[in-house]
Amino acid sequence: MIPARQVAAILGGPETLGQPVESLMDLDEIVAQGIPRTALDALVDHLSAPADELGRVGLRYRIIPRATYQRARRLNQQYSETAERLARLYAMVHALWHDEDAARAFLFAPHPELRGKTPLDAALTELGGRQVEELIERGMHGLPV
Q1: Distance between CA atoms of 145 and 134, rounded to whole angstroms?
Q2: How high is the mean pLDDT in each 10-residue block of the chain (145 residues)?
Q3: What's the predicted TM-score (pTM) here?
Q4: Residues 6+ apart with CB under 8 A from 18
């Protein structure tokens, strides 16, 4: 299991989230209140290639509609849960391969076990996120991903 502190770091850490995260309960509390919009920006920075500003903007609006992003200082619970889920999956993939580029490649490549969807697109829903977690966990146990 990925520590909540690692997930929080991908979301910008205590500076962005407004408080330290030591447990899943801390993270759950922050998500329930709505994460700051800047936490989504931190997540998108992790998921995007460093020099790909256009890709970063497109990714942000795949996660949350443009108008909602521009209007909200804090995301609602639904978008906060989606951002947390994506941060957790990124942390899992990074722990599996210890390589940011490999983690991104996995998340953005269509996968046959997800009916051709990318893991990132599948993980935009709770059930899709569970399927992606299952794939990653198999890799953590030495099975094909």
Answers
A1: 9
A2: 96 97 97 97 90 78 95 96 98 96 94 96 97 95 85
A3: 0.94
A4: 30, 36
